[in-house]
């Protein structure tokens, strides 16, 4: 298992005897973006939450860069997760939001200062660092959420409906950033109900139906 791929083998999850995910198998090389498509309730968010270690799988295993998903101390520092529901405090300014989440990740004061220095020239958020999150548009908030997920420069990035409610300008900026990350060898999984968007962005699309991964068409 000692390689750079994301390897998923037989992942399964159930709630109250209802199978949410069944026998999910795939592997993803670095430097790629894989889309996850499927109807509401197909299991897209559950799969990402398991890989983000927000949920624990009932069956199966996953490895990334030779690290088992069960080794939380090694897995979590190399993983970035952007949930579908924005985990942002509307009262905080964007600058304060970055500082808060950097501190939550255990970054030192000097590292947090560097994060804010970089943010001041980041085209995703530099124009509204002093704006409170509640005063941000939907697209701005999605951009902030993406930047928070990128703290620590994770090698594995898990994005759940990252473009929901975002305007075209925000989508363009976010897609450009994801292209850059892919070119730098990052492994990126994106769930979305927007097939056209996934088709433009992804190297491959994984389609879930009732918790099962369908074979490529």
**What is the oligomeric state here?**
single chain
Structure summary, number of beta strands: 10
The termini sit apart by 28 Å
Strand count, sense and closure of the main sheet?
Answer: 6 strands, mixed
Secondary-structure element series: EEEHEEHEHHHEHEHEE
Look at the structure and give the mean pLDDT: 93
Percent of residues in beta strands: 25-35%
From the helix content, strand content and strand pairing, which structural class follows? alpha/beta
Q: State the low-pLDDT regions, or none.
A: none
Overall, the morphology is globular
Cα-based radius of gyration, to the nearest Å: 17 Å
Number of helices: 7
Please list the strands of the largest sheet in the order they lie side by side. Answer: 6-7-8-3-9-10
- Helix-residue proportion: 25-40%
Give your account of this protein's structure.
It contains 7 helices and 10 strands. It is α/β, with parallel strands linked by helices.
Q: What are the defining features of this structure?
A:
alpha/beta; six-stranded mixed β-sheet; 7 helices; 10 strands; 217 residues; globular; 26% strand; 32% helix
Strand-helix topology:
Layout: E1 6-15, E2 18-28, E3 32-37, H1 44-51, E4 59-64, E5 67-68, H2 72-75, E6 79-82, H3 94-104, H4 109-119, H5 138-149, E7 156-160, H6 168-183, E8 187-191, H7 195-201, E9 204-209, E10 212-213
Parallel strand pairs: 3-8, 3-9, 6-7, 7-8
Antiparallel strand pairs: 1-2, 1-4, 4-5, 9-10
Helix pairs in contact: 3-4, 5-6
């Amino acid at each position: 298992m000692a390689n750079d791929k994301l390897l998923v083998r037989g992942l399964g999850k159930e709630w109250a005897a209802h199978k949410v995910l069944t026998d999910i198998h795939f592997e993803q090389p670095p430097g790629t973006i894989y889309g996850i498509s499927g109807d509401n309730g197909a299991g897209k968010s559950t799969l990402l939450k398991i890989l983000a270690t927000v949920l624990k799988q009932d069956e199966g295993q996953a490895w990334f860069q030779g690290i088992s998903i069960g080794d939380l101390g090694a897995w979590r520092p190399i993983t970035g997760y952007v949930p579908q529901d924005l985990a942002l405090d509307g009262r905080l300014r964007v600058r304060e939001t970055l500082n808060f989440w950097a501190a939550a990740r255990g970054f030192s004061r000097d590292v947090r200062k560097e994060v804010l220095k970089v943010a001041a020239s980041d085209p995703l958020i530099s124009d509204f660092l002093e704006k409170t999150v509640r005063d941000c548009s939907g697209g701005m908030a999605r951009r902030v959420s993406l930047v928070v997920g990128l703290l620590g420069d994770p090698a594995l990035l898990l994005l759940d409906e990252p473009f929901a409610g975002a305007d075209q300008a925000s989508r363009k900026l976010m897609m450009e950033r994801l292209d850059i990350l892919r070119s730098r060898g990052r492994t990126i999984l994106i769930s979305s109900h927007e097939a056209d968007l996934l088709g433009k962005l992804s190297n491959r699309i994984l389609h879930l139906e009732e918790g099962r991964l369908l074979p490529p068409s």
